[in-house]
Structures are given as C-alpha cells and as structure tokens.
Amino acid sequence: MTPTDQLHNRVAIVGVGESDIGKVPGMSGLGLNAQAAKRALDDAGLKVSDIDGLLTAYSFTEPYFMLGSVMCEYLGLKPRFNASMVVGGCSPAIMLKHAAEAIVSGQCETVLVCAGENRATGQTRDQAVSALMAVGHPYFEQPYGPSIPSFYAMIARRHMAEFGTTEEHLAAVAVTTRQHALLHDNAHMKKPLTMSEVLNSKPIADPLKMLDCCLLSDAGGAFIVTSVERAKDLKSKPVYLAGIGEFHTHEHIMCAPSLTAFGAKESGEAAYRMARMTPADIDVAQLYDCFTIVPMIELEELGFCGRGESGPFYLEGHARIGGKLPVNTHGGMLSHAHAGAAGGLLGIVEAVRQLRGGLGPRQVEGAEVALVHNEGGILSSHCTMIFTKDQY
Amino acid sequence: MNQELPIPTPNPDSQAYWDAAREDKLVIRRCASCTALHFMPRHLCPHCWSTDLQWVQASGKGTVHSFSVIRRAPLQSYAPRVPYVVALIDLDEGPRMFSNIVGDGALETQVGSRVDVCFEARGDYKIPQFSLVKS
Predict the structure, then answer these.
(1) What CATH number should be reported for the domain holding residue A294?
(2) Which of A336, A361, A376, B50 is a plausible cystine mate for A381, CB 3.0–4.6 Å?
(3) A142: Cβ contacts below 8 Å, ≥ 6 apart
C-alpha cells in the first residue's frame, strides 16, 4: 500500500455550491466565493461552526497575498487547517487531495474548499488577456509575444500534424459542450451553437478561434469534504472519493517533454489504481476544457480512446449525454463557466450532482462512477479524481 | 500605454546568454558531468544536478516542432506585428526553445520547417529569432 492508498474511500463530498454565474456585476470576487460556500453549507446541512478547515486557490482580479487567510477572515472562520494553493487550474483537485489527507490524518474534520473570481466584470478584457500572459516564461517566452491561446494552439497544431486531427474535430468539442450547457439553468452561455459558427468565429491563434476558447465568467464554486463516518448522517447524499492521483512534468510549454503526451496519463493511472478501477468503469467524465484541444488530449491520456482518436470520438457523438462517455455534462469551461480555479472546481460540483442523480434531461442514466480531471499551466500539472455513488 | 516590446531581463543564470546574443551568438548550457545539453540556462544541470556547466555555441539551425499564427495580440505593443508566428524550435543540438519565426514567408511555416537563427535588437540587447531556410 502506498501512502496515498490510505485516501481510498475515506472521505466524501457532502455539500456543493456554485455562485450566480455569467456577468454578475453586483458581486465581488470574495462575494462569489461566499455565495458558493453558503450554498454548499446549506446543501450539506452543516453549521458554520462545523467547518474547521479551509482551502482556496488564487485570484487574478482580487490578488490578495495569503488568500486563504483572507477568505477565512471574510467568512468569519477560525480554522485549524488553512492554505491558499496555486497549481493553476489544477488547484481544486490538489486542494481536495490535501483536504482528504488532513481529514484522514486527524488534523481537522470538515474542510471547505472554494475558488472564484469576477473575471467578467472585475476587469476589462484587455486586462484579463494581459494578466494571463504572465503564464508565459518571463525571460524566454514573453519577449516573443505569446498569448495563452497560442500555447494551446501549438499543442493542437502538433496533434493535427501527428494524427490528422482537424478543425472540425475541435469544433465538435465546442458544439457538444454547448449542447450540455443548454441543459443547465446556471450556465453562462444560453444559446445553441453550430459547427459553422465555431469554424467561422474570429481567429485568435491558428488553429484556435474564439469559440475554441473558454469563457471569462464571474463565478465561484465550493464543496465540503468530511470523513465517511461524519458523512453518513448529513442532509445530502454523500459522494465518495475512491481514487485520486497527481503528476507534474513542467510549467512552461518550452519545457514540456512532449506536445501530445502529458502527465494526465500518470495522474489517471494513480487514480485508477487507488480506486481499483479501469476506464471501462467510468460512467461520466468532467474534463478540464480551457480550450477545445484539452479534453481531447485528456480523453486519450486517461485511456478512454487511443492517441489521435479523440476528434472522431467527439464528432461521432460519443461524448454527448447518452453517448459512450458523456463529457462535461454541465457545459464545461467552454460554455458553463470559467473564472480561474473555479473552472475545474465546478467540474467536481457537477460530478457530485451526477452521482446524486435527479438532474432531469442533463442526468447521465445510471451514473455510479464519475471521473474528474483538472490541469494547470499548459497541461503542466495534473490531478485526476474518481468519485463513486456508493461506498464499496 | 507602453508601446515598447519587452526587452531581455538578464539575471545571474542568463547573463552570458544575453551577452552572447548581443554578439549574434546563440549559446546553450552543457553539463560537463553528464554531457546533456539544456535550455533554459540554470544554476545546475536539470538531468544530474551537477553545477559543472559550460556554455557552448549552438549552430543556430533547427526544426519547427510546432507553431501558431497569432491573430489577436495579447498586448498593445504586439498589435502592429499581427499576424505573427510563435514557434517551438528543436535545435539541431537537441534542446527546444521558444521563439518567433520572422522574415520572408514566415506565415508559410509548417511543422517540420527548417529554420536558422537571426537576432532582433531589443533595447540594449538582442533576442534570438528564427527565419525559414529557403529550400
């Protein structure tokens, strides 16, 4: 048994919440976190005084030093366990892992994990793009004028060159994801999308176009983690953490070992191993989708299809609700919400909801096992989570 | 609004790299212990952690591993250059670096295109850039 195997079936998510999403001009970034946290607490049926741990990530629009402590101060919490974690979009998954470790080792009992920013109304679009440019290496990438989309565009371009992937494949990801968002009342995007609209959208960084890129939303998300023992008599049905694994290969794209193989393979293998599962056991997946190429690569890395097969997988409808493996049933970061670390966190929220059931037309029938993948940087840091409806 | 393009920011790891670029030379780090070459310059070899490092001059020739044509500039200062090409270059010596493809036919760049280094003045320094090798 490796040390992390001790996390298998030891903690559960007992409450989830998302803030109002889209353009929410009446809310600060911290306010969005608080709204999501309050909804998660109500969902769990817990009291504020039950929370003895807090983890949060980072904020570009309200960039406090020591954001974890700032969040506790804002929420009036005095926890025994607290940190702000910065692993880019991968942060929510890593926070869940740290929360689980803290609970299993007895440091605390109930951890609130939250993230969110007002990226739609808290900054201008130019400020947003400029701030995100800081993701490029300051000395060896930024002098060349890269944009975030251009980094992912290079990954898409390499996928095309090696496997024959097409712009239609990428567009199918955006269209599929939008179809799902239309089934979610709180999704940022509310209009249907066609293949030709995606293919004819404004060029950003070839081969990526505007509609290959994620949203800039006002959004917050939160979930509450506790021990499986504590979870048993709470208000909402708990969802169990069966497996979790992380892997890190680089930060800047110039140092990526490959543009087609990333650390999601290793993080996924660790999660499957801890859960005693294989890709065939997964009923629904929430994959990080900051750009259309990203969930495609994750499908391949996580073993749901072979290298180069993810484009046809989307184009043939296998990722739709009702397909072989429904992906991003809430609409993902492409159509539901993206606001910093909240993007990946809302995938966890959706996985919990799918496993609880009762989502109407959005429900994946018979969903018992859900996989969520978060990535940070330029497919640099990876964490894969497997959740189950029942403890087994 | 500052319209200037970014200028190099040398630090103790990279001063020799930027000094060489000013002389139109592309230099990379070689580990005297394990012989591996690496980019970007560091205090130690990222393969074996030896601090016994040398600077070696690269041929300046390489191959485009991947690229993108940027149609929307991330900063105002790049707007006059749109459309421009960013690329990952595999140097013939092995290490990969990030750069622009500039000059004649840059928009015709393909994965696998052969490129050659050139240098562009930025402030008191120069940055390595690449242009397509005419076939």
Answers:
(1) 3.40.47.10
(2) A376
(3) A133, A136, B6
